[in-house]
Write a structure and sequence with these properties.
The chain has 21 helices and 17 strands. It is α/β, with parallel strands linked by helices. The chain has 4 domains: 138 residues, Resolvase, N-terminal catalytic domain (Rossmann fold), CATH 3.40.50.1390; 110 residues, Hect, E3 ligase catalytic domain fold, CATH 3.90.1750.20; 171 residues, no CATH class; 55 residues. Helix 8 packs across helix 10 and helix 8 runs parallel beside helix 12. It is globular and about 80 Å long. The two termini are 47 Å apart.
């Protein structure tokens, strides 16, 4: 009996049913190998991963490639349900040599069995399927973009994304597609949000009166007006929501949708090579601003306007006259490697500190404008700076001390104890977390509505809404506190990582900046800088994802942190 590993992929949960997609791919694989005494004993199926992503960067596919090098992998061959799902473009030519190197046959239904490395026809067939897969994706992109452009020009349907500040989505009836309507899908259009729309009108009016963007932000904060991120906390939990920022004011002033016209294609997704010296790593998607002549405008006003077109035109002319038009962008600077990027937090405001390069040295800063301090009622310097080389040497010594041989058992026990307190992410807990988010968003809107009521209005109705949302939030928080706990990582996994790192901790002090940053990232380091005490608190937070068991590097089939340590062991 030949033991096989099944390899499949489903592009996205929104447009495909993962269970149905897996079922028919699995069935095709079984139909191929069962008559030849084959049995599927392992499964590697990626969900919500584009075919354009190379297999080495897909979680399940990378785990499969990693297992090829394992002599105790538990399977003798690999079978795919459909080659277009596994390979895209030239991915087959970049991936199949690994199967050939480790002597693992790759079975494909269209071949009728395992691929023969010496058969030119097999290679041609697989390359053709890669080209077909690439062409299919290109045709889908073209159809979607054409449809979106036509809808933006001729209809008032909301075509995706969050509505601009000042608008809200309202129901517009069942979906025109009968099958989608039967599933309960609805159309939505934009309507004016009275509270936010009044703020938008005030911003345009004050700017036309000669006030600067920063002055407008300060006045709104001082008057207690909720910023966009504070007004809709449910979708802006990643932002502080403390006060109005200059960027929020500018984004409102340059947004043409406040005139009531539908505008689409202001930005596009652009795929760029991750490494120009190693094209096999594939591309990464970046958002890029299109020039104004590429924007798609509706032929007429389709949404309730908040400001008139003449006001919008006057504002754009004023912005352009100040030397910075609405779509101009600062030139890209040279990229630098920051060892502590994303890991250093300000001890006063608890915000992540920004990476900053000054005089050929890496710094981290927390810029806290006056309006933020005003809204948050904290004593915060306008700028807090800490130099990287003042932190990293002490951090390396800390790692050496806690990962020293005589303290490793103590460190492992401490990490296990910390992870034992991590809440379980079961369905009930996830639902309770979503309830908390929804209630917080509703509370922000209800309070804004209450503040906007006239003196003659009865606030009892809104107060009842607030009480109801608070009760639901309290119940959801109680459910989260009562949720069962579980550890996210095993003792064996922590022990392996600590032993590997401890054996190379001394070499880490002299490592390359990029390698050192990779190890810090997989350790889950969180550093908190307290400027008044001139101290940094360091924490290491491990989980199975950071350990990188499913990562495949371009240099070898191993997690990135192990690759770094291997290099350090060669040249400490």
């Amino acid at each position: 009996m030949i033991k096989h590993a099944f390899w499949g992929r489903c592009s996205t949960e929104d447009r495909q049913d993962p269970e149905a997609s897996r079922a028919w791919q699995y069935s095709r694989a079984e139909q191929l190998i069962t008559p030849r005494d084959g049995l599927i004993v392992a499964e590697y199926f990626d969900v919500d991963k584009s075919r354009s992503i190379p297999p080495a960067r897909r979680p399940e596919a990378s785990r499969l490639l990693e297992e090829l090098a394992n002599p105790d992998r538990g399977f003798d061959a690999v079978v795919v349900g459909e080659p277009q799902r596994a390979f895209y473009g030239n991915q087959f030519g970049n991936t199949f040599p690994l199967f050939e190197h480790y002597g693992v046959p790759l079975w494909v239904p269209e071949i009728g069995g395992p691929i023969d490395p010496a058969n030119e026809a097999h290679d041609m067939i697989m390359s053709t399927f890669g080209s077909i897969s690439k062409g299919e994706r290109s045709r889908i992109k073209t159809r979607v973009r054409s449809t979106m452009a036509a809808m933006a020009q001729t209809t008032n349907r909301h075509i995706g994304g969050r509505p601009p500040y000042g608008y809200r989505l309202v129901d517009a009836g069942p979906h025109p597609n009968p099958s989608k309507a039967a599933d309960g899908k609805r159309l939505h259009v934009m309507d004016i949000d009275p509270y936010a729309a009044e703020v938008v009108q005030r911003i345009f009016a004050e700017f036309l009166d000669g006030r600067g963007i920063f002055a407008i932000a300060e006045r709104l904060t001082a008057d207690g007006i909720l910023s966009p991120s504070a007004y809709d906390r449910a979708r802006n939990r990643h932002r502080s929501g403390l006060a109005w920022s200059k960027s929020a004011i500018r984004a409102i002033l340059i947004n043409p949708r406040y005139t009531g016209r539908q505008v689409w294609n202001k930005q596009r997704k652009r795929e760029v090579l991750i490494d120009v010296h190693d094209v096999a790593r594939g591309h990464e998607t970046k958002m890029t601003w299109n020039s104004k002549d590429a924007w798609v405008w509706s032929e007429k006003i389709v949404n309730p306007p908040i400001i008139d077109e003449q006001t919008f035109t006057d504002v754009q002319q004023m912005l352009a006259g100040r030397g910075r038009g609405p779509t101009s962008r600062a030139p890209y600077r040279k990229r630098h490697t920051y060892v502590l990027r994303g890991a250093l937090f300000c001890g006063i405001c608890r915000r992540r500190m920004q990476s900053h390069w000054i005089n050929n040295a890496a710094y981290y800063r927390c810029r806290f404008p006056e309006e933020y301090a005003l809204a948050n009622k904290v004593q915060h310097p306008r700028n807090v700076y800490v130099r990287e080389d003042a932190v990293v040497p002490a951090l390396d010594r800390w790692l050496c001390r806690y990962f020293a041989p005589h303290r490793r058992a103590e460190t492992i026990n401490a990490m296990l104890a910390a992870h034992a307190q991590a809440p379980a992410d079961d369905a009930a807990s996830l639902a309770a977390q979503q309830t908390v988010k929804d209630c917080e968003g509703r509370l922000a809107r209800y309070r804004a509505t209450l503040d906007a009521l006239d003196q003659d209005s009865d606030p009892s109705v809104v107060a009842g809404w607030i009480a109801e949302a608070q009760a639901q939030r309290t119940a959801a928080l109680a459910q989260l506190r009562q949720a069962p706990n579980k550890a996210q990582i095993t003792r064996e996994e922590i022990t392996a990582l600590i032993n590997d790192l401890g054996d190379h901790a001394q070499a880490l002090q002299h490592a390359d900046r990029g390698d050192k940053a990779s190890v810090y990232q997989h350790l889950g380091l969180r550093l908190t800088y307290h400027p008044t005490k001139q101290t940094v608190r360091a924490e290491a937070r491990l989980d199975s994802h950071r350990i990188g068991r499913r990562s495949v590097s371009e240099e070898g089939l191993e997690p990135p942190w192990k690759r770094v340590l291997r290099r350090l062991s060669v040249d400490p």
